[in-house]
Ribosomal RNA small subunit methyltransferase H
Amino acid sequence: MEHVSVLLNESIKMLQIKDDGVYVDCTLGRGGHSSEILKRCTKGYLYAFDCDQNAIDESTPRLQKIGDNFTCIHDSFEHLKEQLDSLNVDKVDGILLDLGVSSPQFDDAKRGFSYRFDARLDMRMNQEQKLDAWTVVNEYSLEDLCRILKDYGEEPFAYKIASKIVEKRKMKSIDTTFELVDVIKSALPNAVLRKKGHPAKQSFQAIRMEVNQELPQLEVVLKEGLKRLKPHGRMCVITFHSLEDRIVKKIFKEVAVPKKVDKRLPSLGIENLEYQLVNRKPVLASKQELDTNYRAHSAKLRGIERNECNGQETN
């Protein structure tokens, strides 16, 4: 299945791309957003991150057809600061993040992301890292399994599933996605199994997020990215579930929304904030996009802009 970039037009419009601007696509994927950025910054430059070498290999020819003013960086966006410093890139005009797993990763059975295909438990976006889903499932303690299923999967039966995993792996390691699905199903009541939707969805999400450290890395890149923006530079983030959106909303609010004060106290004047929200409510996919791209149903787009710094820089 071809990967279709979600909220493509909306995010590109929100970035307000300048012809000579410098931009960072933290989630290159198959190059949908990066291609549109390159088309609009013919005199500028694009830096595109992806920890999946397959994504870089497939996207590079697509970008080369547009121009040569780009650099692909094989690394997690968590290392945004270190990588841009090494390239002597100080401030940028825009940063884009399209979070989640791309369709090619889900649809490649051997990557072990999906409960729809039988494959060795893997789920690594970066194939060079050591931690994989097999290690999480077979070596994490009962307490840690329960924690990630609760925190990352919001799974109401986290303890029962974690207990069943520990019980089963004492007899034999849980090696494949289908074996894990069977274990998860065996821990759930029939009433849950009869419900619409796959019973392993939340557990697989939780394990994938643990393997790739998605939420801790998101916090890092948001905070570092905000520091990199030039005045009037923008950061746009597309999320696909509530955990991601909650983090983006919280960090944006911390720097762009005035703190609530006791109205009975004397006013000290208007608070000068370094950033402002581009949109208070998230941008959602249009009906037209929803009809053609199922992944867009849960997508939310939020943006933030850096104000004039009044002579002060934040490091």
About this structure: Residues 311-315 have pLDDT under 50 and may be disordered. Residues 249 and 302 are 8 Å apart (CA to CA).
